[in-house]
UniProtKB/TrEMBL annotation:
The keyword Membrane applies. It holds the Pfam family PASTA. CDD domains: PASTA_pknB. Residues 102-169, 170-235, 236-302 form the PASTA domain. InterPro entries: PASTA_dom. The keyword Amino-acid biosynthesis does not apply. Gene3D superfamilies: 3.30.10.20. Keywords: Membrane, Transmembrane, Transmembrane helix. This is PASTA domain-containing protein.
Length: 318
């Protein structure tokens, strides 16, 4: 058994542990070991039958038989036990070297959901290395975590081989569209939906733009953001402050109000305290905030008409 296990040629060694164990068990039981082709040594069974040898000079018709040799059971069991212990020791010490000539393998650990640093430690601990790291957008996995690996978890590969990783790059990104000057909140919502973004807070603000017009946005146009990001907008309330036209001439006052988007109503009022054709009051008052198109009433001065007194009749004295 020992010589078979240590045979120089691999083809003459035991090919499996089960084959060697079978011979050891047969040896312990005192049974002959099954011969195998190309073995350098074969065990001879114990208690082999004695061969009868003819005697030439004996009596006619008789055959002399050699006396059976006494077997020393103690010696037999000693060598059997020694061989068993030796064989077991060889199996323990030589291990896979007797039966396995291939490279050592290890199961690939599962590194999904780990960070790159954590995955590197996990692979190093079992004798593997990190291979390529490929970024890939993922709407669910946090940026920098592992979302894929090759080979897969549980596969057996040789020590020192690389495991390629797919790393989450976070959510896919898009560019924020330009919303300023869109006519309404609904127009802004549609533009954002096409860009896979979401309309956020809508804030009204006094502006000379028509009511509902988008006048500001955040984030700004062309900013790269994650898919699904909220975009807030500011829309014109359509209200603007009324210009101050008191003290202006009627013509100047009307032009100022019309250019600001207001309608004008003129009321002439006699007033001798100011020059004629001067605006003496307005409604709504100056700086009042109101919608464009509102009518602003202005009062314009007119000098009062002076009526000459009727001369007293001349009295002639006779």
């Amino acid at each position: 058994i020992t010589l078979g296990a240590l045979a120089k040629s691999p083809s003459n060694r035991y090919q499996t542990a089960a084959e060697m164990r079978s011979d050891v068990e047969r040896s312990i039981a005192g049974m002959p070991i099954v011969s195998r082709q190309n073995h350098a040594t074969e065990a001879i069974p114990f208690n082999a039958p004695t061969t009868a040898i003819p005697i030439v000079d004996g009596f006619p018709g008789t055959v002399a038989v050699a006396a059976p040799k006494k077997t020393n059971n103690r010696t037999r069991w000693f060598f059997t036990g020694f061989a068993t212990v030796l064989a077991a020791s060889l199996i323990f010490l030589l291990g896979d070297n007797l039966f396995n000539t291939g490279p050592e393998t290890v199961a690939v650990p599962n590194v999904k959901s780990q960070t790159v640093e954590e995955a590197t430690l996990a692979l190093t601990d079992v004798g593997l290395v990190v291979g390529t790291q490929t970024p890939q957008a993922d709407d669910n996995a946090p940026k920098g975590t592992i979302i894929g690996q090759d080979p897969a978890a549980g596969e057996l590969i040789e020590l020192g081989q690389a495991v390629n990783l797919i790393v989450s790059a976070g959510k896919d990104q898009t560019s924020v569209p330009d919303l300023v000057d869109l006519a309404s909140t609904e127009d802004a919502r549609l533009a954002l939906t096409e860009a896979r973004l979401v309309l956020g807070k809508v804030t009204p603000k006094d502006s000379d733009k028509p009511e509902g017009t988008v006048i500001e946005q955040l984030p700004a146009a062309n900013t790269a953001v994650d898919i699904g990001t909220l975009v807030s907008i500011t829309v014109s309330s359509g209200k603007v402050p009324v210009p101050n036209v008191v003290g202006a001439t009627q013509t100047d006052a009307k032009n100022t109000l019309l250019n600001a988007g207001f309608l004008v109503e003129v009321i002439i009022e006699e007033n001798g305290a100011v020059p004629e054709n001067t605006v003496i009051s307005q409604n709504p008052a100056a700086d009042a905030v109101t919608l464009k198109g509102t009518t602003v009433t202005i009062k314009v001065s007119k000098l009062p008409i002076v009526v000459a007194p009727t001369p007293s009749p001349t009295v002639t004295t006779p």
